[in-house]
């Protein structure tokens, strides 16, 4: 049986963590979605042939409220236009051409507003996003 071409030359994968505000990162002492992306990469690498990179290229570009006390409409409004892509470099070129599979990484999805905003920022920068991976989901 002949090997599938996609297995011979698998498309590289980039995990892009959803950012938190600088204040939230300082309070925690780390970037939780970045740490989640790094751990996912570490666990995945022994099982696939693709190159997997973690790219911390999304930033919160303005003040945002803590999402925890907001309803769906408030969350969407709070994050609208709040993320920017920084320092994408060669990944941007590779993602535009389809030579890189891009996945957003987040710890928890409640309304999807963070993922939606991350997707918007990447799309606006010209990156094609393949999907999103989250550790958990909340009904509220």
Annotation keywords:
two-stranded antiparallel ribbon; 4-stranded parallel β-sheet; alpha/beta; disordered N terminus; 140 residues; single chain; globular; 6 helices
How would you portray this structure in words?
The chain has a four-stranded parallel sheet, with helices on both faces. The chain starts with a helix and ends with a strand. The protein is built from six helices and six strands; from the N terminus they run αβααββαβαβαβ. The chain has one domain (10-137). It has 140 residues and is an alpha/beta fold. α4 packs parallel to α6.
The radius of gyration over CA amounts to 16 Å
- Summed up, the domain count is 1
What's the arrangement of strands in the largest beta sheet? Answer: 2-1-5-6
List how many beta strands DSSP finds.
6
Tell the overall outline. Answer: globular
Percent in helix:
25-40%
What is the succession of H and E elements?
HEHHEEHEHEHE
Q: Separation of termini?
A: 49 Å
Classify the secondary structure makeup into a structural class.
alpha/beta
What's the average pLDDT? 85
Uncertain residue ranges: 1-6
Count of runs of 4 or more consecutive helical residues: 6
Share in β-strands: 15-25%
Q: Major sheet: size, sense and barrel closure?
A: 4 strands, parallel
């Amino acid at each position: 049986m002949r090997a599938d071409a996609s297995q011979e030359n698998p498309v590289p994968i980039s995990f892009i963590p959803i950012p938190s505000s600088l204040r939230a990162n300082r309070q925690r002492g780390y970037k939780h979605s970045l740490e989640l992306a790094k751990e996912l990469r570490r666990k995945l690498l022994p099982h696939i042939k693709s190159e997997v990179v973690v790219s911390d290229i999304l930033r919160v570009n303005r003040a945002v409220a803590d999402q925890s006390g907001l309803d769906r409409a408030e969350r969407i409004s709070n994050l609208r236009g709040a993320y920017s892509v920084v320092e994408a470099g060669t990944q941007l070129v590779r993602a535009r051409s389809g030579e890189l599979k891009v996945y957003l990484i987040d710890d928890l999805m409640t309304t999807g507003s963070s993922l939606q905003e991350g997707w918007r920022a990447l799309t606006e920068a010209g990156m094609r996003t393949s999907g999103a991976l989250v550790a958990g989901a909340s009904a509220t």
